[in-house]
Specification:
Rossmann fold; Dna Ligase, domain 1; four-stranded antiparallel beta sheet; 29% helix; binds adenosine monophosphate; binds glycine
Length: 422
């Protein structure tokens, strides 16, 4: 379920499984429709989705976006004895309530930035006068990536609190907020599959959230990613497992939550070790577009094992020992307002396992491909080094055209710059 680049990458990978016969995608996009049957049901229509799954005897439903999980799609499917990969509404609170996530981390001693919770603007503004800057202000609820603001002084902090808590610019999401310390370091994404008892991490990746080169401009859903990221050494991955992933799974289980789905930890690698910035209860986008092309194991087997609580039977995941780099091509104006319906040309028609074009926001009109979203395409190259992988994606990006296409020219720059200095 879903309509973006993440879902295209999941469908593309599931398609390669010998155990998968038919794939339906609700609602999908033009790229997904080339490899699966798209059905016109939106992600928020839980009733229609579960009816569809029952009627078509879908053996496994995989949920892409967070919203339906936060609204309880897993609970509804479970009630109807339909198999679904994704956590319950209660467990999805790890993503849908930042305060829930923080309190959970505090209870289970999971490293994260110190914080305070506020339910009135007056209290929050009172606190602002007593603290040092920068700090981070976060709305409690889901806010499509707009819920966290790094503020550098009292003036900016006061304005942010007013926008969130008085003007309610993020709606209900801003009923309560948290204010936390600013952490410095490299930000990385760790996605792992859990079945309630076992947790199996994927390779670490790094996203690029800001719209423009050099990490400038507004925050977006993600303008590109690469995998694996060398910022996470084997030693660091062990620490992440010991201090973050295992305690998260144990904590959930102690609280009676049988978590079957993705646990995605957004981490800051600080001098004091890895700290959790946020949890997501689903696959990351664009991270999934770089992780799937490197995964050799059968994704269907992994997800099937997770929903049947048999993940421990899969000892290890196997990977291509290469790098993947994804460059997102977006509409002019994204993440703000943008036009849709623009003609796209130049997308290679032949499938290529070393350069895949995943569709994020596209639709088709007969043979014609058109833009249909903010993020339009994600072009993933795979090769022996990160630089070679990037070269492959940019070669394809340079062939694709649509009016006002925007993309970052510096994906991977943080690690490439570090390696230059060595
Ligand atoms: P979140 O919605 O909590 O993931 O925050 C969105 C983005 O804000 C993160 O991806 C980080 O880049 C940044 N951020 C969040 N919390 C912190 C923090 N405590 N210190 C520094 N940056 C942060
Ligand atoms: N790329 C960030 C996310 O999926 O939340």
């Amino acid at each position: 379920m879903g309509a973006g680049g993440r879902e295209h990458a999941l469908v593309w990978k599931l398609r390669q499984s010998r155990k998968v016969d038919k794939i339906f995608c609700a609602p999908g996009n033009a790229g997904i429709s080339q490899i699966a049957r798209c059905v016109n049901i939106k992600a928020d229509n839980i009733g229609a989705l579960s009816d569809f799954a029952a009627r078509n005897r879908i053996s496994l439903t995989v949920v892409g976006p967070e919203q339906p999980l936060a609204e309880g799609i897993a609970d509804e499917f479970q009630k109807r004895k339909l198999k679904l990969f994704g956590p319950s509404r209660q467990a999805a609170k790890l993503e849908s309530s930042k305060i829930f996530a923080k309190e959970f981390m505090r209870r289970h001693h999971i490293p994260t930035a110190p914080y305070k919770v506020f339910s009135t603007a007056a209290e929050a503004i009172g606190f602002l006068k007593t603290t040092e800057y920068p700090i981070v202000i976060k709305a409690d609820g889901l806010a499509a990536g707009k819920g966290a603001v790094v503020v550098r002084n009292l003036d900016m902090a006061t304005k942010t609190i007013e926008q969130i808590m008085i003007k309610r610019e993020l709606g209900e999401a801003g009923e309560r907020i948290l204010i936390e310390s600013f952490l410095e370091g490299q930000e990385v994404s760790i996605m792992a599959i859990a079945d309630g008892k076992t947790i199996l991490p994927f390779l670490p990746s790094q996203d690029h959230k800001q719209a423009f080169d050099g990490d400038r401009g507004p925050n977006t859903g993600g303008m590109g990613a690469y995998c694996p990221t060398d910022f996470v050494s084997t030693d660091m991955m062990e620490k992440i497992n010991e201090y973050v992933l295992q305690p998260t799974l144990k904590g959930l289980s102690k609280e009676g939550i049988n978590y079957r789905g993705v646990i995605y930890a957004g981490l800051m690698l600080t001098v004091g070790g890895p700290k959790v910035l946020e949890y997501n209860c689903r696959f990351g986008d664009p991270e999934t577009q770089v992780v799937m092309p490197l995964l050799k194991s059968d994704l269907f087997e992994i997800l099937q094992a997770a929903v049947s609580s048999k993940l421990s039977s899969i000892n290890q995941l196997t990977w291509r020992h290469e790098y993947a780099a994804c460059v997102v091509m977006a509409s002019k104006g994204y993440p703000g307002r943008y036009a849709t319906g623009l003609k796209i040309t130049g997308v290679p028609s032949k499938p290529d396992n070393n350069c895949v074009v995943f569709h994020s926001g596209t639709s088709s009109d007969g043979d014609r491909l058109k833009t249909a979203g903010g993020r339009v395409l994600g072009v993933t190259g795979v090769d022996q080094t990160l630089q070679l992988a990037l070269n492959r994606s940019y070669r394809t990006v340079n062939k694709v055209r649509f009016d006002g296409a925007m993309y970052r020219k510096d994906i991977g720059f943080r690690v490439l710059k570090r390696d230059e200095k060595k």
